[in-house]
Design brief:
This protein is mainly alpha-helical and about 200 residues long. It is built from eight helices and no strands.
Length: about 200
């Protein structure tokens, strides 16, 4: 009975991580409201989650804001580039599909493929940024290489991301859960997957 109420008990460790995920999700949501800061919020969230999957929890809130400040410049630049290119590609896909001519559907398919590659890059970029201390150009290039070189990981995370987005629109209870806590859930799973990859890359 004493062991059950110990803070080292597996149940309490799991519940502590669940609590941290909920708190960090709310922090991410608040810090993402200005939109332009979404990149920094992603980097900060991922920095804490990468520590959590390695059982290096520490002071999660302090670590979150420390990572937010340290990675603000690079993560904001990556986010704004992603947002701009994503809007352009999405607009091109919509434009060519609206024409209704099968000839233009090929162009739409090309731009849609480019959009998918961009999303795969999104799946890894903000994790890579907080794991490796590299110049922005190197971070962008290596994030693309990692996303395409470890395609099963990035595709799995893209599917998870799509499932969360679908859940928000498909169900009211899921909308509440994923709106407030989806970012933390996704980031923790992504951190768990990318940790092994990054450890391997660091050794190389």
């Amino acid at each position: 009975m004493t062991h059950f109420f110990s803070i080292d008990n597996a149940f309490f460790r799991i519940m502590t991580k669940v609590f941290y995920i909920c708190v960090l999700s709310l922090l991410w949501l608040i810090c993402s409201i200005p939109v332009v800061t979404i990149g920094a919020a992603n980097s900060a969230l991922n920095a804490v989650m990468l520590r959590m999957v390695r059982d290096e929890d520490g002071y999660v809130i302090r670590t979150y804001f420390k990572a937010f400040r340290e990675n603000f410049r690079h993560s904001t630049a990556i986010w704004l580039i992603l947002l701009m290119v994503g809007v352009i590609l999405s607009s091109d896909v919509y434009f060519f599909l609206q024409i209704g001519n099968p000839v233009f559907w090929v162009a739409a398919a090309v731009f849609f493929t480019a959009l998918i590659v961009l999303l795969l890059f999104f799946m890894v970029a903000f994790h890579y940024l907080v794991w490796f201390d590299n110049p922005l150009k190197i971070t962008v290039m290596n994030s693309f290489r990692t996303a395409l070189g470890y395609l099963p990981y990035s595709v799995a995370l893209l599917v998870l991301f799509a499932a969360i987005v679908y859940g928000i629109y498909a169900s009211a209870p899921l909308m509440i859960v994923f709106t407030f806590f989806g970012a933390g859930i996704y980031s923790y799973i992504a951190a768990y997957l990318w940790r092994r990859v990054f450890d391997r890359l660091a050794q190389e």
